[in-house]
Design a protein that fits this description.
The chain has 305 residues and is α/β, with parallel strands linked by helices. Helix content is 26%, strand content 25%. The protein has helices at residues 13-21, 40-48, 61-67, 84-88, 110-116, 152-164, 167-176, 208-218, 284-291; strands spanning 3-7, 28-31, 52-54, 72-76, 94-98, 121-128, 138-145, 225-228, 231-241, 253-257, 260-264, 269-277, 280-283. Strand 4 (72-76), helix 4 (84-88) and strand 5 form a beta-alpha-beta unit.
């Protein structure tokens, strides 16, 4: 059995482990050039004796020729669109593991958008790769409950664990010589843009719940940040509350509470507990001391204020 694994995301090592446990270690693992030598994927490949190639030119003729000798290509977290020739090169084609219930949340970083929108349940979809992004026939879907206080970083391994649990069944199908045709996604679903830095900008005129979702969604993906008198401050962790501070405007400091800096929003108070400022992690009191923050001090989405 000849299976090739494209493994770009940090948790793709779960698929490598699952293939080895199923008695079908891949003949080749391909990852991006940014994957460091000490990454779990690299260490696991070395332990299993599986060849690992770091490359970004996955459409190169030499790789296409090698895929032509493979039974199946499995893709976990590849950040680029793969062409039709590559997807059709293996005998049974290519299967992608996408962290959403397709056709909802098509595109990149779906867990960020799902947490931002407060989804209680996400999913893992294994689907055939086609030229249309995340639109190929669906082979399997598995639901994953979003734990309380989940972040993009903490949710990703849970979703990919659900995908890795499908590996024994996929290996059995490959051994039998065929994969099911799959079912076409029902409707266009939803699609969100690739993440940009501005998606992490905190607007305290939103509610505390919305700000909390943004901070949790950003963790593991991008920086969630605000400004104090032109200085950029990253918010790493916090909690929403439904209490109000009478007379305190959104974005203004309401006070200190334990390790938290309490900031007013348009709906409740946000207790920001950990920050990154000048490359150092601060709790609320430490940040207040570093910046001279007192009641009424402003945080804003505008760096000019």
């Amino acid at each position: 059995m000849n299976i090739v694994l494209f493994a770009w995301c940090a948790t793709s090592v779960l698929y490598l482990d699952a293939l080895a446990a199923a008695g079908a270690p891949p003949s080749l693992v391909v990852t991006g050039t940014r994957t460091p030598p000490g990454a779990p994927l690299a260490a696991t490949c070395e332990r299993l004796g599986v060849p690992l190639e770091r490359r970004d030119d996955v459409e190169a003729p030499d790789l296409l020729a090698r895929l032509g000798a493979a039974d199946l290509l499995l893709v976990a977290g590849c950040a680029r669109i793969l062409g039709a020739e590559l997807c059709a090169a293996p005998r049974l084609g290519a299967v992608n593991f996408h962290p959403s219930r397709l056709p909802e949340y098509r595109g990149r970083e779906p867990l960020f958008w799902a947490i931002l929108h407060g989804e209680p349940v996400v999913a893992l979809t294994a689907h055939r790769l086609t030229e249309d992004v995340d639109a190929g026939p669906i082979l399997f879907q598995r639901s994953v409950v979003v734990p309380p206080r989940a972040t993009s970083a903490s949710l990703a391994p849970l979703v990919d664990a659900a995908g890795a649990a499908l590996i024994p069944e996929i290996v059995a199908l490959v051994a039998a010589g065929a994969l099911p045709e799959g079912s076409r996604p029902d409707g266009p679903g939803s699609h969100f843009p690739p993440l940009r830095a501005e998606h992490g900008l905190i607007d305290f005129t939103r509610s505390a719940v919305e700000i909390d979702r943004l901070v949790r969604a950003a963790r593991g993906e991008i920086a969630a940040y605000t400004f104090h008198r032109g200085l950029r401050v990253l918010v790493l962790e916090g909690e929403p509350g439904d209490e109000w501070a009478p007379g305190v405007l959104p974005g203004r400091v309401a006070g200190l509470e334990g390790d938290a800096l309490v900031i007013a929003t348009s709906g409740g108070l946000y207790r920001a507990q950990r920050f990154l400022f000048l490359d150092r992690v601060h709790d609320g009191p430490a940040l207040a001391a570093a910046l001279g923050l007192g009641p009424g001090a402003p945080f804003t989405a505008n760096p000019a204020l």
